[in-house]
Every structure is written in C-alpha cells, then in structure tokens.
Design a protein that fits this description.
With about 700 residues, this protein is α/β, with parallel strands linked by helices. It has 4 domains: about 5-260, 2-enoyl-CoA Hydratase, Chain A, domain 1 (Alpha-Beta Complex); about 300-475, Rossmann fold, CATH 3.40.50; about 500-505 and about 515-590, N-(1-d-carboxylethyl)-l-norvaline Dehydrogenase, domain 2, CATH 1.10.1040; about 595-695, Orthogonal Bundle (N-(1-d-carboxylethyl)-l-norvaline Dehydrogenase, domain 2). It has 30 helices and 17 strands. The strands form 3 sheets. Strands 12-11-10-13-14-15-16-17 form an 8-stranded mixed sheet, with helices on both faces. It has a 6-stranded mixed sheet with strand order 1-2-3-4-6-9, sandwiched between helices. Strands 5-7-8 form a 3-stranded mixed sheet. The model has no long low-confidence stretch (mean pLDDT about 95). The structure holds 3-hydroxybutanoyl-coenzyme A (3HC) and 1,4-dihydronicotinamide adenine dinucleotide. The site of 3-hydroxybutanoyl-coenzyme A has 26 residues, from strand 5, helix 3 and helix 12. Keywords: Fatty acid metabolism, Isomerase, Lipid degradation, Lipid metabolism, Lyase, Multifunctional enzyme, NAD, Oxidoreductase, Peroxisome. In the N-terminal section; belongs to the enoyl-CoA hydratase/isomerase family. Belongs to the enoyl-CoA hydratase/isomerase family. It catalyses: a (3S)-3-hydroxyacyl-CoA + NAD(+) = a 3-oxoacyl-CoA + NADH + H(+). Monomer.
C-alpha cells in the first residue's frame, strides 16, 4: 500500500493522511494512495468513519501542475472524488494551510469539512488559465450558493476558515486537524447524521434558479477586469451549468471546458508564469548555505513618488520603516500623500477603516541622513542624478552600521559607480521598484560586480517579505525592464514620423493586452522629464519637443499626446496633435504613409524581444523566464501571453528574426538587425526556453 498516503485507526475511525511535500499536490501516486486507503477503509468492517487530512505545511494545494500536458495517469481525480462521495461511511476532510484547486475539490467530495482557524480555502485555477476541473464549479455553488462561488472561482482568491464557516463551506473550526477531525467524525456517528453529498443538495441553487440575474450580476461584476482572458468566462459558463442543468450534465460541461482550456496557449502561458515567478526567486551564483542578513530595521531615503510607495509597501507588510527627507516641508508633503492614499483605499473599501492609522503609525518620518544608523537595510529613492546619488551614498557610508545593506532605487544609473564612493561596495546593490511602488509587484534586484552573495540574498528575502516578486539582474543602462522599454519607445516615436498617430499605436498595444500604450504612458509619466533630459544632452525629437513647447506635458497639464477632460485620466485623441504632427513632418519634408496594425504590433514587440536576447547574451538576466517575470509584474504584460520571451517562442524565432531584418532595412535602422543570440537560435530552429534547459 501507498507510503505517500498513510492510514491509522483509532476507535473505529480511519484517519488517512497525505504526505507529499512540499504542498501535497495530487500527483498520480497521491490519487492512487487516497483511492486505495478509502476503498480499504470502506471495506474494513471495524471502520465506521473516515478522516482525510494532510501532513506538513498544508492540506492538498491542488492538482500537480507539472502533470498537465502529459499523458494522464490513472486513477483520475474524478475517480478519487467519486469514491469519497459514494462512501457509505461518513468522510470528514480536516484542513490546515491551504485547500486549493483540486485540494478543495477533494474536500468538497467528502461529506463534511472541518478546518483550523488559519486555514484558507479557494479555487485558484482561473489564475492558471483554467477552470476547476474536478467538480469545483458544480459542488462549490451547491455548498455556498452561486454568488460567492462566482466570486471565488472567477477571482481565484481563497477565503478564511471563518468565512468558510459562515457560508457553510466548512462545518466547524477546530484546533487540530487530526484530533478535531476525529472528534467531529465521532459526533457525526453519535448523532447519526445523514451524509451530506453536495451532488444531491440543490437547496442553495434555488434562488438563482428562480432569478438568474443573481448569477449574471455576480458574473458581470467579476468579469469587468477580465478583458482578454478566456478562463473567467469559461468558469462562468460552467457555474451557469450548475444552475441550469442536473449535476452530472453540469460535470460534463465543466469537463469539456477544462479540456479546452488546458491545451490552450493562455493556460500554458499562465502555468509557465507560475513557475517562472518561483524560479526567479532562486538566485543563480549564490554559494550553497549562504544566509540572508537579519533585517529588523529599515530606512527609506526620499519621501517622493517612489520613496513614499516603498515605505508603504513595508508598512503594508507590518514592518516598521524610517522615512528620511532633506527638510520638514518635503517630509510632511510626502507623509501627507501617503496618508491620503491610504484614506482613499479605505474609503473605497479596499482597506479596513482602522488600517490607515495603523499603517501610518509604522512609518516614522525624520529629517537628516544620520538617522540611518540603526537600519539593517537602507533604500535610497532620491533624485535620479549620479552626483546626488554619490553624495547620499558617501553619507550612508559614514553613518550606516557595518553590514547594513545599502540599496538604490535608481531606474538607470550604474550601481557600481554608486558603490565606488563607499568603502563597502560589497554591501551595495539596486532595489528597483516600479511605480506605483505600493501596488506594482516587481522588484529588480541589481547585482553590482562587487555585491556580496549574502547582501543579494538579503534583498531578495526582504522583497519577498513585502510581497514583491524579486528578479535578480545585472548592471546596465535601464537594467532589464527599462532597457527593453526603451527599445519599444524608440520604435513608437519613429512610427509617428512615418505616419502613425499616437492613438493608433496605443490601440494596437492595448488590444494585445498591455494596460496602456507607449503614448498614454508618456502622458502619465510627464513629457517634460524627457524633454529636459534631451535639452541637457543636446538631442532633438521634433514631435515630442513641439508638444512640450506647446505646453503639453501630459496628464499634469491636461494635454500631451492626448487631451484630458478635467479630473479624468482617460486619453482622448486630439485633432490638435494630428495637426502638430503633420506640421512637424511637413517641416522635415517627411510624408505620412499608411501603416498597418500588424506592422505596428511587430515593431512594438519584436525590438523588445531583440533587446531581451542581448540582455541574455550579456548575462544581465540569468534566464529568459526572468525577463518575462519582469514584464508581467513591472509593466502589466498580459500574463495569458506569458511574457515577451515566451511569446517569442510561440511566434517562432525564425519569423521574428526575419521581420526584424526586414524592418532594419525598411527604416534604415541597423539596431533592428537580429541580435546574435536571436539569429543563432532562429538558424538552429530553437527557442529561448531551450536555453533554460542548458542549451
Ligand atoms: N503542483 C505542482 N507544484 C506545486 C504546486 C502544484 N499545484 N503548488 C506549488 N508547487 C510547488 C512550487 O512550484 C514550489 O516548488 P519549488 O520549491 O521547486 O519552487 C513549491 O511547490 C512550493 O510552492 P511555493 O513556493 O509557492 O510555496 P508557498 O508556501 O509560497 O505557497 C501555495 C504555497 C499557496 C500552495 C502556492 O504554491 C500555490 O498557490 N500553489 C498553486 C495552487 C494552485 O494553483 N492550485 C490549483 C492547481 S490546478 C488544479 O487543481 C486543477 C483541478 O481543478 C483539476
Ligand atoms: P521624486 O522627485 O518624487 O522624489 C525624490 C525625493 O527625494 C524628493 O522628495 C526629495 O526631497 C528627496 N531627496 C532628494 N535628495 C535627498 C537627500 N539627500 N536626502 C533625503 N531625501 C532627498 O522622485 P521619484 O520619482 O520618487 O524618484 C526617486 C528615484 O526612484 C529616482 O532614482 C528614480 O529614477 C527612481 N524611480 C522612479 C520611478 C518613477 O516612476 N517615478 C520608477 C522607478 C524608479
């Protein structure tokens, strides 16, 4: 019998324990083990009731995602759940940690469920581009009603044990899974309770059967932000079948939907992204046994846009932080913005009413860099000029305690040059957050030539502790994300000179699934920043310059590449901009031509992929999947397209290399020629993914 799934007998109760670290995923061996143990317990006349529980850190966290796309191994999860459901003896699932996906579906196949207070229960399949495929879409609506089921299945977020209890998803909160589960089973026996098979219990569907708008309104609310995604709609369809059809027909609809999604590109991309994110956290080139340095005190320097957001990220994670400014006025201004930001979230219902005060209490604002002296980690977010950065880091070198990690949030500047002004370059690195820093999950951890492995690991660990997704990158202008973004911006600008309009370019990019196009993004960031920097460097960009000369700095002046109505952030195409572009082109003697959406798409995406290839060649990123994680979490690349490098593999490197060569010639721009790595892989008929496999 199975060793991964064990059974113990006490007073007529068989307790079956799954022990498949790290997360008790439902591998073929686990499925077989549960089935064998349940069948044995049902056949054993000494057993009156069964408890299903898990060892280690969690209840079953779902199907084994690594098995998707491989030939299915018997028994199927359906068979296992059918056996639980059909058992004539009561089965109690006893849950701790997270009961997710196929894990919760397994628990829903049991007749009763108990959970410890800290447990979380959910169906996160939608986040993998899937729908719950083992009865979740049919049993959860029967357990908690269609409204909450829609929220849980389309949103993919778990609920707490307390919520699960109040909605009837669990029967009792217990202190301990085994003791609590067995005690509950004894109660069921003593009270001779009838077995609750969710497949036979339609009571919670009655209201939505009488008035289907209960269901359709819930779906409408949950799909508002689902543009481009297939899975949420397929989930809704399957839940709808629970309302409209008998259980077995609903199961069939669920099955069909699941099989369609699991072979599709979107789910493939989302499963890839799940593993890419976890892979990114494994830092290459750090000797085995390296430990992060302890961090209990954190200081952030600069209470501007980024410093404020970074400090909020620490407060959100319950970590106290000292925020340092140059003067009382800038400090109070920064703290005021943070306070307002928290209050706005609370007013929208995104935070409990007492959260703003609690979180602000974790942020101590002070004036003067000498206040860093206790900090274990210092994150600098002052103005983006090398002279200012060097000045600040010299001061940090004087004030910071030995061993403190000194991080810069610089967007572009050379970390090695910043480190060079200190006597401790081994402690210096970049922690590049993305705006708005309290929201965006990416943190590029920039490793300088002299950065010590344990300092690097400290930054990675801290980033995870404040719920960021860390990706280690090397030193170069703009690191991974902004360097690739520059390749795209460059093309966006050129397209205007050839005849495209901002709204045409942005529409192609948003239709692809990005939250914003390059011109709307420019308006949001402010066009004056680039204008000043071009003036400093004596560079011209006639269209952008003309916009700024006309006082069009973007959203902050109510107009830029677009016009904005007072109080609105919605970009409106502006005929004045078209005139301005036409006049500029006439002055330069350039003619507009018709540019297809296909050309725009290729010129937005392929140069980024090309830059990604250079980044890999230069070892600025360790793996193609790291680049994809940067784009998903830093720039809102649609996760259902897996990131630029994954997308490149899907399109094929050969056609991409050919199109790049074509555009290099068409626009007389040698920088568009395929990078050597891209060319080599294309010639060899390979993918970027093949590099990760040691090619
Ligand atoms: N299958 C295979 N491997 C899994 C897995 C799964 N379902 N869930 C987690 N893992 C692996 C991770 O890749 C990681 O491996 P690594 O150590 O080699 O990198 C390891 O388990 C630990 O995972 P985390 O680092 O994420 O650990 P955390 O403690 O931070 O989080 C968790 C634990 C909340 C369970 C999180 O891993 C998670 O959300 N897992 C996915 C849950 C999920 O999506 N379940 C649904 C699967 S689809 C399904 O069930 C279909 C069904 O309806 C038929
Ligand atoms: P900001 O101008 O909003 O804020 C900078 C703050 O630093 C100001 O409040 C200023 O008073 C303070 N400051 C200046 N010198 C200081 C000193 N010696 N000691 C203490 N405080 C000092 O700038 P922003 O946008 O927050 O940028 C900060 C850094 O973050 C820059 O390096 C920038 O490149 C980087 N960054 C910016 C992003 C953005 O979207 N704004 C995104 C990612 C990184």
């Amino acid at each position: 019998m199975s060793e991964i799934v064990k059974a113990e007998h006490r007073d007529g109760i068989a307790t079956i324990t799954v022990d498949n670290p790290p997360v008790n995923a439902l591998s073929a061996a686990v499925r077989r083990g549960i089935l064998e143990r349940v069948n044995a317990a049902v056949a054993d006349s000494k057993v009156q009731a069964i408890v299903l529980t898990c060892a280690g850190r969690t209840f079953i966290a779902g199907a084994d995602i690594t098995e998707f796309g491989k030939p299915p191994q018997p028994p199927s999860l359906h068979e296992v759940i059918d056996a639980l459901d059909a058992s004539p003896k009561p089965i109690v699932a006893a849950i701790h940690g997270t009961a997710l996906g196929g894990g919760l579906e397994t628990a829903l196949g049991c007749h009763f469920r108990v959970a410890v207070k800290s447990a979380k229960l959910g169906l996160p399949e939608v986040k993998l581009g899937l729908l719950p495929g083992a009865g979740g879409t049919q049993r959860l609506p029967r357990a908690v009603g269609p409204e909450l089921a829609v929220q849980m299945i389309l949103g993919g977020n778990p609920i707490s044990a307390a919520e699960a209890l109040s909605h009837g998803l669990i029967d009792e909160v217990v202190d301990d899974t085994v003791a609590g589960g067995e005690a509950f089973a004894r109660k069921v026996l003593a009270e001779q309770r009838s077995l609750r098979r969710l497949r036979d219990d339609d009571s919670k569907l009655a209201a939505a059967r009488a008035d289907r708008s209960i269901f359709t309104n819930a779906v409408a609310a949950m799909t508002k932000k689902a543009r481009g995604f297939e899975a949420p709609f397929a989930c809704a369809d399957a839940i709808g079948a629970a309302i409209d059809l008998p259980f077995d027909e609903g199961m069939k609809r669920e099955r069909d939907g699941f099989l369609k999604l699991v072979v599709g590109d979107q789910s493939k991309a989302q499963r890839y992204a799940f593993f890419a994110e976890r892979e990114a956290a494994k830092v290459a080139g750090v000797p085995e046994g390296t430990k992060p340095r302890p961090v209990t005190k954190v200081a952030v320097i600069g209470a501007g846009t980024m410093g404020g957001g970074i400090a909020m990220s620490f407060a959100n994670a319950g970590i106290p932080v000292t925020l340092i400014e140059t003067g009382e006025q800038t400090l109070q201004r920064g703290l005021g913005i943070m306070q307002k930001n928290y209050e706005a979230s609370a007013a929208r219902g995104g935070l409990p009413p007492d959260a703003p005060a609690k979180r602000m209490a974790l942020i101590t604002g002070v004036v003067g860099l000498e206040n860093v002296k206790d900090a274990d980690l210092i994150i600098e977010a002052v103005f983006e000029t090398m002279a200012v950065k060097k000045e600040v880091f010299s001061a940090l070198d004087a004030y910071a305690k030995p061993g403190a990690v000194l991080a810069s949030n610089t967007s572009y500047l050379n970390i090695d040059a910043i480190a060079s002004v200190t006597k401790r370059p081994q402690d210096v690195l970049g922690m590049h957050f993305f705006s708005p820093a309290n929201v965006m999950k990416l943190c590029e951890i920039v490793r300088g030539v002299q950065t010590a492995p344990d300092a690097l690991l400290t930054a990675v660990t801290v980033a995870k502790a404040i719920a960021k997704v860390p990706v280690v990158v090397g030193v170069c202008d703009g690191f991974v994300g902004n360097r690739m973004l520059a390749a795209r911006s460059n093309q966006a600008e050129k397209l205007l000179f050839e005849g495209a309009l901002p709204q045409q370019v942005d529409a192609v990019v948003t239709k692809f699934g990005m939250p914003m196009g390059p011109f709307a993004m420019g308006d949001l960031a402010g066009l004056d920043i680039g204008w000043r920097s071009r003036q400093d460097r004596g560079i011209k960009s006639e269209i952008a310059d003309a916009l700024c000369e006309a006082g069009r700095f973007g959203q902050k002046t109510g107009k830029g590449y677009y016009a904005y109505e007072a109080g609105s952030r919605a970009p409106l195409p502006d005929p004045e901009v078209e005139t301005l572009i036409n006049d500029t082109l006439a002055k330069l003697g350039l003619k507009r031509r018709e540019i297809s959406d296909q050309e725009i798409l290729e010129r937005m995406i392929y140069p980024m992929i090309n830059e990604g290839a250079r980044i890999l060649e230069e070892k600025i990123a360790a793996r193609p999947s790291d680049i994809d994680v940067v784009w998903i979490y830093g720039y809102g690349w649609p996760v259902y397209r897996g990131g630029p490098m994954f997308y490149a593999d899907l399109v094929g490197l050969k056609p991409i290399a050919e199109r790049l060569s074509h555009y290099a010639k068409q626009t007389n721009d040698p920088s568009l020629e395929p990078a050597p790595l891209l060319k080599r892989l294309a010639d060899e008929g390979r993918t970027f993914a093949s590099l990760a496999k040691g090619g």
